[in-house]
Design brief:
7-stranded mixed beta sheet; binds FE2/S2 (inorganic) cluster; 18 strands; binds flavin-adenine dinucleotide; alpha/beta
Length: 332
C-alpha cells in the first residue's frame, strides 16, 4: 500500500485524537501560529501544503478551483503560520443572511468543509458593548479563482453581528484553513448534499468541487432564510412553515432520494444532523456530517470543542468538523 493509499484508508476522526497532545500537523501549524497571534504570514514547514493525497479533483461549478480531499491529517490543507490581516472586498445580503467576501490571494485553497477563525480588525472587544475578543469559527462557503473567500453569516450574537456589518475596505483577521473537510464519495457513490440554515455554507464549496451531478437538498425555517439557497445551484428546498418549497423537513426530501448507491454530506443544526444520521444508518448509507461546537482557539489547544464518538472524545476543530456518521452514536 502506498503512502497516499494509507492516508486515504486511515480512519477519520481518530488520527489526531485528543490523546496525541496536539501532534497532528494542523495542531502544530495552527497552534504555533495563533500563539504568536501577531499577524505573521510565514508558512510553517509544510504548513501551507496543498498536497491532495488520496483526494480526488473534480470539475468546479462556481468558477473556483477546489478538490475534495481524503481524510487523513497528513493530506488536509494546513494553515499558514500566523493569522492574516485581510481586506473585505464584498458584502451582500442574501435573505436573512449576509455573504461577506475576503481577499486571501496568498492563502492556500481550503478543502470543502474546512473552516477559519475570523475577527474584525477594528472594534472587536475592549468594552461593555464590544464583547467579542476571541475569534469566531466560520465555514468557507466558496473560494474564487483570485483567492477571494466567501462566508455566509447569520447574525446570532455580538461576533456575527460585528462581522456582518463589515463593508468593502474594512479588514479582518483570519486564521486558517483549519480542521478536516469532506472526503470524496466512496466507491463512486452518488453524493447527496443536505443542508439546514446557515449550515448550507460548506455545501456550496463542496458542490463546486463535486460538480453538477451532486443532488442538493436544503431546509430552512421560512422563505426569508430560504433565499440563502441561491448560494448553491439547483437546490430542492424545504421550509418549516411552507412559505417556500416543500412544507416540512429537509429529511423528508432526503427520504425520497435515498438509495443504496448514495453517500450523504450534511451540515446543519444538531437535530437535523441526528435525523440524517439515523436515516442513513437505517438505510445502510454512508454519511459525512459537518458538526459545530463552541470553539475558542480552532487549532486543538483549548479542548473546548470536544464531542463524544464511539472511540472516545475528539476535538472537533482538528479531528472534524466533518465526522463520519458511522463513528457517532448520535449527534447530541
Ligand atoms: C466549524 C464551524 C463552522 C461554522 N460556520 C458558520 C458559518 O458558516 N456561518 C455562521 O453564521 N456561523 C457559523 N458557525 C457558528 C459561529 O461560529 C457562531 O454562530 C458564532 O461563534 C457566534 O458568535 P456570536 O458572538 O455572534 O454569538 P454568541 O453570543 O457567541 O453565541 C450566540 C448563540 O449561539 C450559540 N453558539 C455560539 N457558537 C456556537 C457554535 N459553534 N455552535 C453552536 N452554538 C453556538 C451560543 O451558545 C449562543 O446561544 C460555525 C461554527 C463552527 C464551529
Ligand atoms: S481545541 Fe480549541 S477549539 Fe478545539
Amino acid at each position: 500500500m502506498s503512502g497516499d493509499e494509507r492516508a486515504a484508508a486511515e480512519p477519520r476522526g481518530r488520527s489526531s485524537a485528543a490523546a496525541d497532545g496536539g501532534s497532528s500537523p494542523a495542531a502544530r501549524g495552527g497552534g504555533s501560529s495563533a500563539a504568536t497571534g501577531g499577524g505573521s504570514s510565514a508558512a510553517t514547514g509544510g504548513g501551507s501544503s496543498a498536497a491532495t493525497g488520496g483526494g480526488s479533483s473534480a470539475a468546479t461549478g462556481g468558477g473556483s478551483s477546489v478538490s475534495v480531499r481524503g481524510g487523513s491529517s497528513a493530506d488536509r490543507t494546513l494553515a499558514p503560520f500566523g493569522r492574516r490581516r485581510l481586506r473585505v472586498v464584498g458584502r451582500r445580503e442574501l435573505g436573512a443572511y449576509v455573504v461577506t467576501s475576503v481577499l486571501d490571494a496568498d492563502g492556500p485553497a481550503p478543502d470543502p468543509g474546512q473552516f477559519v477563525m475570523l475577527a474584525a480588525a477594528e472594534r472587536w472587544g475592549g468594552g461593555a458593548d464590544e464583547r467579542p475578543f476571541l475569534p469566531r469559527a466560520f465555514s468557507v462557503a466558496r473560494r474564487h479563482d483570485d483567492g477571494t473567500l466567501d462566508f455566509l453569516l447569520e447574525d446570532v450574537g455580538p461576533g456575527t453581528e460585528r462581522l456582518a456589518e463589515l463593508h468593502e475596505g474594512d479588514d479582518v483577521w483570519l486564521l486558517g484553513p483549519l480542521g478536516r473537510g469532506f472526503a470524496p464519495p466512496r466507491d463512486g457513490r452518488r453524493p447527496i448534499l443536505v443542508g439546514g440554515g446557515v449550515g448550507i455554507a460548506p455545501l456550496a464549496i463542496l458542490q463546486d468541487a463535486l460538480g453538477p451531478h451532486a443532488r442538493v437538498l436544503l431546509g430552512f425555517r421560512d422563505a426569508a432564510h430560504a433565499a440563502g439557497a441561491a448560494l448553491l445551484n439547483d437546490a430542492r428546498i424545504a421550509t418549516d412553515d411552507g412559505s417556500a418549497g416543500h412544507h416540512g423537513f429537509v429529511t423528508e426530501l432526503l427520504t425520497a432520494e435515498l438509495d443504496a448507491s448514495a453517500e450523504v454530506y450534511a451540515c446543519g443544526p444538531p437535530a437535523m444532523l441526528e435525523a440524517v444520521r439515523a436515516l442513513c444508518a437505517e438505510h445502510d448509507v454512508p454519511a459525512q456530517l459537518a458538526r459545530e461546537s463552541g470553539m475558542a482557539c480552532g487549532f486543538g489547544a483549548c479542548f473546548g470543542c470536544v464531542v463524544p464518538t464511539k472511540s472516545g472524545y475528539v476535538r472537533l476543530c482538528v479531528d472534524g468538523p466533518v465526522l463520519d456518521a458511522a463513528e457517532l452514536e448520535s449527534v447530541a
